[in-house]
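General statements about sequence and structure are easier to judge against a single worked case. For one protein, we set the task of working out the structure tokens from the amino acid sequence alone. This step matters because it turns folding into a mapping between discrete strings. The amino acid sequence and the backbone structure tokens for this protein are reproduced below.
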Amino acid sequence: MDDSAVIRQLIRVNLELEGYEVVTAADGAECLEVVHTVRPDVVTLDVVMPRLDGLRTAARLASDPRTRDVRIAIVSACTQADLERGQSVGVDGYLGKPFEPADLIELVRRLIEQPPGAGRESVDAESA
């Protein structure tokens, strides 16, 4: 979920080319609505979004019994404070902007293969 239509389209196209089904939302509030309807395996979030930012969205997803097993990836130009806050609220992985499509695909693939709740203790911030 990203407030930039161009980034949402980039994520959508690259993941769909790999065979993933993709649903998008323009902000965190819309994301929460979509996630409760669609039940995705992975949610990608930008940190800076209108109405409800990515880290607050991640915290709500991770704390809700209906969505706590959804893997959460931050795809954003993160600060060190964002990385630390993300780790504390249940983010599973990070990808810094700008990003290579292959890195996005690898991150999503890795998160899908993780058992529920795995990886939330450690953060892969090398790309952020």
Remarks:
- Helices lie at 5-17, 28-38, 54-63, 80-89, 101-113.
- The chain has one domain: 5-113.
- Residues 120-128 have pLDDT under 50 and may be disordered.
- The first strand starts at residue 42 and ends at 45.
